[in-house]
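Example record

The entry below shows one chain as it appears in the dataset: sequence first, then structure tokens.
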Amino acid sequence: MKLLNFLPLSSQNFAHPPFLSNNKESIALFNKADLKGIIFLMMRNLLVLFTFILFANNSFSQSIVDEFNEDSESNQLASELVTEKISKVSNSKRTYIITNDNQSFYKGDFITLVLANKLAARAIVAKNVNNLAGIKIIKIYSLDLFKSFNPGVEVQIIRGDDSFFGAKKETEEDREEANLLKEEEDLFNGTLLEDDLSLDENTNREIKTDNILSLNVGLISGLNNDGTSQNYTHLNGMWMYQFEDNIWAEIGYGQNIINDYPSPGFDTTMSNLFVRAKYTISAPLYSYIQPYVGFQMISASSPQAGVDDPTDDITPSQAELDNEILLVENLKKRQIIFGVTVLKRLVPGWFIRADLGSDIMNVGFSLEF
């Protein structure tokens, strides 16, 4: 190209330069070199232009897609998503009862709960009855939003695919944060859908269940034949019911037999019926302390007491017969009682328990349901 710039622009000079006029071979070489230079420059310019157009088009397209995604999220929230309200939350926070006033989803549907214009959690509809739906959480998008799920909170519902809403790809960190099993105590939270949906959940309860059955063996105070105090082994059972948060009512019954009382060869049955009111306090090591106050009724019976047996050779005096009846009557009690119960969780649903009170000293096992 530089060579052409030094030449006059006439056709004659271009075809036959003076210094090449007598050299046909040189003219041929010159024409080939000039043509290759022109082709190279054209290809280089086309490549630069193509690269520029490709880059500009890609950037512009990406900006259009981003803007479209943002607009579609906003438009979807404003015009298409239905709003429902959380009615109940299970203690495991895995199952919920929400309203379905709009009848926008049905049993077996996959739905996504949206809060504050963001994806919060993914769920499956397990029940749908009378404008109420029972759902079970299967995936958490935002742990912070998920923690705000409480009765009365309004959420928006996406039925089916939620990918258009810009759901982010789940990372390892997200999976760790979304794991609901944060500590050992969570092992004892029930997650059965049927049970959770039937409970009137209250997170203020230290023990989530309503009923506890216990079987115990303990020591109960009685009398010797000489009228002094004596402790006897006593088998008993109890049922506790939680009628308010952490407030329990308990009823129990126990029985034991005292041998050679009120006289040698006689047996006396002691029956212990009691009621208690308790309050639950959480303690370390998955334990619970329950101070209680109540009322105890102890009855005693001995069919042979105060009766002369004609088959033996001994004829007791009337004073001795009256003393036998008196000893049996002295076992009977009607009294106010107080003490404390300690429950220690062994495995989900089972406790070991101990009672220490003015009525009895007990150890045993308890089953919650």
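Notes for this example: Residues 1-22, 68-79, 181-201 have pLDDT under 50 and may be disordered. The chain is about 25% helix and 40% strand.
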